[in-house]
Write a structure and sequence with these properties.
alpha/beta; Rossmann fold; 5 strands; 9% strand
Length: 162
C-alpha cells in the first residue's frame, strides 16, 4: 500500500508516532536549528521535520503511550538545562493534543518479542491495532508488517510528496 493510501485509510482512526520521530517533532517545534545540533536528532534534516508536520496534518487523532512519552521526555532532558522550560512547554502541548493508550507493562512483557524488542516497542505493537505507526525503526516496522499492522518508516517515504 502506498503512503498516500495509508494516510487516507487511517486519517480518522489515528496515528501513533514512535519515540525518535516524536522527539524530532518536539525538538523541531521548539527550535528547528536544534534538530541538527542536538545529538539525539542530528541524524534528521529540516525536511524530515517538515515531512512529519505535513503527515500529522492528515490526522485528527494522535495516539501515544506513556512509554513513548517517558522516553521522549527523558531524551529531551539531555538538552542543556536552560532549554528545559522551553522544550517542556512544547512537550506539554504535544501531550495535551494526544490520546494516550495504556498497556500494562506486565502484559507487554508476556509476549515472546519482549527480549528482542523491549518494553516500549511491545507496548507500541499492542497499541497499533487500529492506528498507523510512524517510525524510523526498521525492526519495529517489519515486525508490525509481519502481524498485519500498518506502519510507515520515514526512511521509505522521504521521496514521496505528502
Amino acid at each position: 500500500m502506498y503512503p498516500h493510501d495509508l494516510l487516507e485509510k487511517y486519517k480518522d482512526k489515528g496515528v501513533l508516532i514512535d519515540t525518535n520521530l516524536l522527539l524530532l517533532i518536539a525538538v523541531g517545534t521548539y527550535n528547528t536549528a536544534r534538530i541538527l545540533s542536538f545529538k539525539r536528532t542530528q541524524r534528521y534534516t529540516l525536511e524530515d521535520f517538515l515531512l512529519m508536520r505535513r503527515i500529522l496534518e492528515h490526522f485528527q487523532r494522535r495516539v501515544t503511550t506513556p512509554n513513548i512519552l517517558t522516553e521522549v521526555d527523558n531524551i529531551a532532558r539531555q538538552l542543556p538545562e536552560d532549554e528545559h522550560e522551553s522544550i517542556a512547554a512544547v512537550l506539554t502541548q504535544l501531550i495535551s493534543n494526544s490520546f494516550e493508550v495504556y498497556v500494562e507493562s506486565r502484559t507487554a512483557v508476556q509476549t515472546h518479542l519482549y527480549p528482542a524488542i523491549g518494553l516500549t516497542d511491545c507496548v507500541t505493537m499492542s497499541s497499533a491495532e487500529e492506528v498507523l505507526v510512524l517510525t524510523d525503526d526498521f525492526e519495529l516496522s517489519n515486525r508490525l508488517a509481519s502481524v498485519g499492522r500498518d506502519a510507515l518508516n520515514i526512511n521509505h517515504i522521504r521521496h514521496f510528496d505528502l
